[in-house]
Structures are given as structure tokens and as C-alpha cells.
Amino acid sequence: MRLSPTAARLFLRCLHLRPCSAWGGRGGRMTGRLKELWSYGRLLLKSLCFNALCNFDVFLDSIFEPVYWLVDHLTRWFGVVFVCLVILLTSSVLVIVYYFVLPLIISTYPAHWVTWHLCYGHWNLLMIVFHYYKAIRTSPGHPLQMKTDIPSVSICKKCIFPKPARTHHCSICNRCVLKMDHHCPWLNNCVGHLNHRYFFSFCLFMTMGCIYCSVSCWDMFVGAYNAVEVSVVLTGVSRDHNYYQTPEPLFTFTEKLFHKCMIYLWVLTSSVAVALTGLTLWHAALITRGETSVERHINRKEARRLRDSGKVFRNPYNYGKVENWRIFFGVKKRSHWLTHVLLPSDHAPFGEGLTWDRSVYRRDPTAI
Ligand SMILES: [Zn+2]
Ligand SMILES: [Zn+2]
Any stretches that span the bilayer, and where are they (predicted)? Predict the structure, then answer.
């Protein structure tokens, strides 16, 4: 494209460049001016994007934003699959127990053991089903999205609403959650103020149920495993010595099915027991300290920062070990430890989750 000399002069004046008589003859001057133009452009771009709150973390967050988006959406979708998986696997264990294990126990065990298995097994099952259903169906609790007098600690960058103490934004639910612990894909729900107790009780009773199943079925599992081993060896020997005759079946179809079911039951329940024991103990330690999973990371960081300046960090929501558990389970009197913890109960937790008592007893005067 060819520009007229006047238009070219005007364009260069806009860019603060004086026209050269010869474009190719003074290469050095031209390069210098281009560099000047380049730095001017960069400064212009920086001034347009400048934000005093920007730091390296914001930069990293922006870079990984597409990855977060993908993970959030996948977790939201996988949540449904995970819930179906929990229901399917639990149902398969129940079918095996009711079809094979329980009739065997009733026909072979003494009366007191039969009573124990019937009572404990059904109580544990009831607690698992109740707490899982409540953990899925109960909303974790959200702050009010309107102007209120409730004291807030900050403003949520996503919701653009005040955040009360212990509230955090869940990028999967795309909402702020009161006393947020974490987003659980196995529940397809956030764990927060209103359903934290249901989540923990589910983990606890599921762990107890899995340990109970794997311990109770140990003898049956060993018997089934040995039977399958013998069956495989004998079938192999029989095949080696007699090519043209079908070997006699060692076990009936029902017996074979029983062996396979027992191996499946034991492997599944024992592996879930190992994984869930770790998770339950971790959450029990957090509850004892009066922390949520999110606060654990924040508090650890804060403790390190204060240690460097010679101060001690004290969690303002730690009311003492027993008191933390009492508040967590919503126990108001002694009998509640039985009726609210060891029996299905849908009582609401203490407080509405918007304000928290920070009057913690401090022995150390340097504690913050
Ligand atoms: Zn939010
Ligand atoms: Zn969530």
C-alpha cells in the first residue's frame, strides 16, 4: 500500500517520530526510534493493565485459570459418577451379606454371636445410610447475599459479597460456603457448617462397617481363597493328564459364586477400611484442634509467619479438645452423646455459622 507524503507525515507525528528523508540510509537512527516506539508501546500496555493488587500469585492464578476451570467442571460431573459408585458398591456388599454371609452365620454360629451380628450390623448400616443421605442432601450453608449488619472479614472476589468469618468460596459450587471444610466429590456436595457432622459421621461409620465386614468375613475369605487356588491347580493337572475328557467339576456353581463373592467382599471392604481410616483420623485431628481443612493450610502459614516475628499463633476457634467435639456434634447435655451421636439425629449445629465466638482463653501473652 502506498501512502501519500502528507498522510505518512501525520501518522509519524502521531507516533512522535519525525519523517526521515531517506528510510534506508539512516538505519541506526531508525532502529533507535523503533526501540523508543517499542518501549512506549510496552509502557502504554502496562499502564492499561496496571493493578496495585497484582502479584506473582495473581499471575500464576491467571495462567492456570483454564486448568482450574477444567478441573472444576470435571469434578462437578464426576461427582454424580462417584455418588453412583458409592451406592453401587455398598449395595453389592449388602447383597452378598444378605444372600451368603448372614444365612451362613445364622445356621452355624451360636445364638449370642448371631444376635450380635444382627444387632451391630443393622445399626451400623442404618448409621451409614442415614449420614450419607443427609450429607448429600443437606446444604452446607451459604452467607446472605444482601446488605446486613453481620460482621465480615473480607469481600468474596467471585460473589462480590461480604464473607463472614470461616467462610470460603467454592469454585466447584460457585458459591461462598459457611465454615467450608472442602468440596467432596464422593458426596457431590460441599462440606460446610450445616453438613460437616453428617460427613464426618458417615466416614466414621463407613470405616467401622468396612472393618467389621473384613474382620467378620476373614475365615470365609481364607476358605474361599484356598478353594479357588485348589480348584485352579486341580483343573490344570486334570487337563494335563486327560485331553479328551471334561474334568469333573470340583464345586457347584453356587459354591464358585460364593468363593468369588467372598474374595470380592473382603478385598473391597479391607481396602476401603484402610483408606477411610486415614481420612477419618485426619478429620478427627482437625476437629480436635477446632480447624477445618481450609483453615489448616491458612493457620499453618500464619503460624510460620508469626514465628518469624517472635509471636505464637493461636487458633481463635479452638475452644479446647472436649469443647470442640461437643460443639461439633451439637451436644447440649450428656444424654445427647448417645441420642445425637450414636443414633440417627438431624438436629441443627450450634449457631447459624455467620458469627463465631473468638473469646479464646490464652495463657501465652505473646499469642495472637
Ligand atoms: Zn464467593
Ligand atoms: Zn463446593
Answer: 77-101, 113-133, 198-221, 263-287
**Structural domain boundaries enclosing 324:** 99-139+192-341
Cα(368)–Cα(358) distance, integer angstroms: 11
CB atoms within 10 A of CB 68: 12
Which tens digit of pLDDT belongs to each residue from 221-246? 999 988 887 776 666 555 555 555 55
Tell me how far apart the alpha carbons of residues 80 and 74 are, in angstroms, rounded to a whole number: 10
Note whether residue 23 is domain-resident.
no
Residue 301 is assigned to a structural domain of this protein:
yes
> From CA 196, how far away is CA 295, in angstroms rounded?
14
Q: How far is the CA of 49 from the centre of ligand 1 (A)?
A: 24
Residue 324 CA, ligand 1 centroid: distance in Å: 26
Burial class (CB in 10 A: 0-12, 13-18, 19+), 258: buried
User: Which-ligand-closest: CA of 145?
Assistant: 1
Give the pLDDT mean for 70-85. 86
CB 190 within 8 A of CB 173: yes
Q: Is 8 inside a domain boundary?
A: no
Radius of gyration of the chain measured on its C-alpha atoms: 33
Q: What's the sign of the alpha-carbon dihedral 306, 307, 310, 313? A: positive
- Specify the DSSP class assigned to residue 367: B
How many domains does the chain contain in total? Answer: 1
pTM: 0.77
> Of the listed 170, 173, 176, 184, which one is catalytic?
184
More confident residue, 202 or 42: 202
pLDDT digits (tens, 9 = 90+) for 174-227: 999 999 999 999 999 999 999 999 999 999 999 999 999 999 999 999 999 888
Distance of CA 240 to the CA centre of its chain: 53
Q: Is 217 a catalytic residue?
A: no
The string of pLDDT tens digits covering residues 130-161 is 999 999 999 999 998 777 777 778 888 888 88
Query: Does residue 291 fall inside a structural domain?
Result: yes
| C-alpha span between 318 and 288 (Å, rounded) | 8
What is the pLDDT, as a whole number, of residue 328? 94
Output helix, strand, coil percentages for the chain, rounded to the nearest 5: 60, 5, 35
> How many whole angstroms from 172 Cα to the centroid of ligand 1?
11
